[in-house]
Specification:
VOC family protein, Glyoxalase_6, Glyas_Bleomycin-R_OHBP_Dase, VOC_core, alpha+beta, four-stranded mixed beta sheet
Length: 125
């Protein structure tokens, strides 16, 4: 079984540059590239991020989004790194049930969260 998350975008090359840099700590690389698709693949069992070129820009809030745990407790430093790559911070730090997160958007406005899980949560293999 494979999970592929598809992200509509106007400029697949620019978005690939952003997402490869953003996901660098998770070791993603370019995969299949056949317009209108460009895939970014990480080490198994990470899901593939499929960039799909569409003619229209993002209009409303995403119904599904990525939540990324970069393995750091320092959300502000991670958000600063992503902003230097072209991300925009959307929210202040939020927390619930021990999780802490900040909502950001990629250069085309697609929202995603950078989060820190509670220290009592053990990652599943």
């Amino acid at each position: 079984m494979q999970i592929v998350v598809t992200l509509d975008c106007v400029d697949t090359e620019a978005q690939a540059g952003f997402w490869l840099a953003a996901l660098a700590p998770l070791e993603y690389r370019r995969g299949f590239d056949g317009p209108p698709y460009l895939s970014l693949v990480g080490p198994a069992p990470a899901p593939t991020l499929l960039l799909q070129q569409v003619p229209e820009s993002k209009q409303v809030k995403n119904r599904m989004h990525l939540d990324l745990d970069f393995g750091t407790e320092d959300l502000d430093t991670e958000i600063e790194r992503l902003q230097q790559l072209g991300a925009q911070r959307i929210s202040r730090e939020q927390s619930e049930h021990g999780f802490r997160w900040i909502v950001v958007a990629d250069p085309e406005g697609n929202e995603f969260c950078v989060f820190v899980p509670p220290t009592s949560v053990v990652p599943q293999a």
